[in-house]
Write a structure and sequence with these properties.
Blueprint lengths: L37 H32 L1
C-alpha cells in the first residue's frame, strides 16, 4: 500500500504489480536502510529458502493425503 504522501499522488503502478508501491513505503522494513549488507541479504535468502522448504513439505503432505482418499 502506498504511503500516499504528496510526492506519491498520481504515482503510476506497474500493471503486473498493482498492489506494490515502488517508492519503498510498503517494504517489509520501511525504516531500514535502502542498501542492505551482504550478510543481511544472505540472512534474508536463507530465511526465504527455509520458508520454501516448509511450503514444499506442506504440499507433499497434502498430496499424500489426497492419494490416501482414493
Amino acid at each position: 500500500m502506498c504511503c500516499n504522501t504528496a510526492n506519491h499522488y498520481g504515482f503510476r503502478r506497474m500493471e503486473n504489480h498493482p498492489a506494490a508501491c515502488f517508492c519503498g513505503c510498503d517494504d517489509s522494513f520501511p525504516c531500514g536502510p535502502r542498501l542492505i549488507t551482504k550478510e543481511r541479504k544472505i540472512s534474508r535468502l536463507e530465511q526465504h529458502l527455509e520458508d520454501l522448504r516448509d511450503e514444499v513439505k506442506a504440499v507433499e503432505e497434502y498430496i499424500a493425503g489426497l492419494k490416501k482418499k482414493k
